Amino acid sequence: RTFENTVVGLTRCAEEFESVVIVTSHMENVLGDKWRDVDMLATQAAVTFSNSLRFDKDIYKALLVVKETSKDLTKPEQKLLDEHIEDYEKGGIALGAKSQNRLKKISNRLSELSTKFAQNVTNAQDDCGIHLMLSTDLDGVNTTLVESAAKAAKAKGLEGYWVQYSEPNYTEVMSQCKVRETRHAMYKAVKTIGLDINKPIV
Fold this sequence. Notes:
By secondary structure, the protein is mainly alpha-helical. Helices cover 73% and strands 4% of the residues. 15% of the residues are buried.
């Protein structure tokens, strides 16, 4: 057993698997429903994979062998090795089979709830925004946003202005709008996205 084929191999394996989840999560955030099921499957697979590594005693023993036999590691290498060993020990590698199975179930359930929570927030973003009656409520904001807000309100059958939530709109309102009440309304709308639908999860 060497540092390269054990510690580096374990690190790269975890990073490469995680990168897949990051991609599917990003695609789900951008494209919505088309990638929602894919993201859920990828997340569940990641948790299953993580648990399989987390309770693999052969890998843990291999790390201990590397720690015992590798005497010429650099400080960064030693630190990475120690962190892996600590992760295993804190993660429950010493638990009995019954306790490990219970911990796996808890981990899987938390992952499901976390993914569902995030998806609910993403879905709720489509309805998130603030309704304003006067153009002066957007004093200081660039004209492009004001014009788009007027069109958005009209499309919704509303009078005045509808500022749809998006990162650019949020940043513009919070940094440029001179009206405190408008900034407060936007902040509150964004910070409570998905609040009602996620209450059962919380």
